[in-house]
Write a structure and sequence with these properties.
It contains seven helices and four strands, in the order ββαβαβααααα. By secondary structure, it is mainly alpha-helical. It has a two-stranded antiparallel ribbon with strand order 1-2.
Length: 148
Amino acid sequence: MHLLVDGHGLPLVVLLTAGQAGDSPMLPHLLGELRVARHGLGRPRTRPDAVLADKAYSARHHRDELRRRGIQAVIPEPSDQIRHRKNRGAAGGRPPAFDVTRYRDRNVVERAFNQLKAWRGLATRYDKHARNYRGGLVLASALLWLKQ
């Protein structure tokens, strides 16, 4: 299960994958499905202001893709990447920009996951079929949205 969550912790995009699938390869698919309705007239936005993600999304190609789309990447750099960059010396380049204050809002994402996992069926994935599981996930998300 992969979610793209708004600033209030409400899922905008729900993408189901195999349980053993990694998080990182799903970022382009999540961004491709993103549609945020505008308050006024016009088509939905497909480009968020920023993506707040954990260290799993710190790969160079993710940062390049976000930069190409004009989206700010608020992703911490893992310690192994820092070590490799420093070992290369001046050739390692400078560290990617990281907005510590904005990253503090990432807790909203983690809290959203925790609220969804409070549903026992979602946490344990009892459903045999993906469509049933996704339906439960969408229902739980809608109920969380109604609580806001």
